[in-house]
Amino acid sequence: MQETAASGVDGSLLVGAGVHKSFGALSVLDGVNFTLAANEAVGIVGPNGAGKTTLLNVLAGAYRPTTGAVYFEGADVTTLDAAQRCRIGIARSHQIPRPFGGMTVFENCFVAATTGGGLAGQRAYQCCVDSLKLCQMLHVANRRAETLGLLDRKRLELARALATGPRVLLLDEIGGGLTDEEANNLVETIQVLRGRGLAIVWIEHIVHVLIRVVERLVCMDAGRIIADGKPEVVIADAAVIDAYIGGRGAS
């Protein structure tokens, strides 16, 4: 990583600056400027095809931007891949859970802590225990991950991300497919994480759940940010309403 005189552009913890991402002739992100402050929770909404997950992939290091840059703690991390960014404190969950088959729940977390987070020994073990406890997974710690139902797979996805010891947590529709009661439990868990000082970026279609956690809401459409501000202001924005009701995004 090389230090930048911009200090993360504006002093934010995580920054995407002028991010463009194309796949061949298809432009998915069109000059996105995104910031996340320390201990801030930001929600991202928008129609299907808006570029939300692609932005998360760029921030996490799964994709390198076609042009633009990503900064973390004032350093340019654009060239770091997802594994390297995980080691420095950027963890993510996936929309579709991806547990390691043939391994127990605890082993899944331990791989995340040691290989993903670079932790070792007692610290890695305790991180796993704490993460599983927070995600209400200790009672199934010795179960094979592939035998879990959807809710527990989503909880394991979150627990694995937390086991790496992140400073930034990127969540991709972790509430999808959950009942209202399950979603409420998820909100309580994420509020605990916020109380611990974890910065969060959360993509979610269940807006009423999202706005119980985040203090800032970003709406994307056609690869651009069309609104960014307090949730109640963004939700009432005419461009945001048009993006959803007009249905311009395609899956």
Question: In percent, how helical is the residue content?
Answer: 25-40%
Q: Tell me the number of helical segments per DSSP (H or I, 4 or more residues long).
A: 10
- Shape field: globular
Instruction: Give average pLDDT, whole number.
Output: 91
Quickly give the structural class.
Answer: alpha/beta
Assigned CATH architecture of the largest domain:
3-Layer(aba) Sandwich
User: What is the total number of structural domains?
Assistant: 2
- Strand order within the widest beta sheet: 7-8-9-4-10-11
| Largest sheet: number of strands, sense, barrel closure | 6 strands, mixed
Radius of gyration: 18 Å
CATH superfamily caption of the largest domain: P-loop containing nucleotide triphosphate hydrolases
Q: What would your notes on this structure say?
A:
By secondary structure, this protein is of the alpha/beta class. Helices cover 37% and strands 24% of the residues. β5 (67-72) and β6 (75-76) form a beta hairpin. The protein folds into two domains: 2-89 and 167-246, Rossmann fold; 99-160, no CATH class. It has ten helices and eleven strands. Residues 1-8 have low confidence and may be disordered. It has helices spanning 8-11, 52-60, 82-88, 105-116, 121-134, 150-163, 180-195, 207-210, 231-235, 238-246, and strands at 2-3, 14-23, 26-36, 41-45, 67-72, 75-76, 90-92, 168-172, 199-203, 216-221, 224-229. The longest helix is centred in the last third of the chain and has 16 residues, at 180-195. Strands 7-8-9-4-10-11 form a six-stranded mixed beta sheet, sandwiched between helices. Strands 1-6-5-2-3 form a five-stranded antiparallel beta sheet.
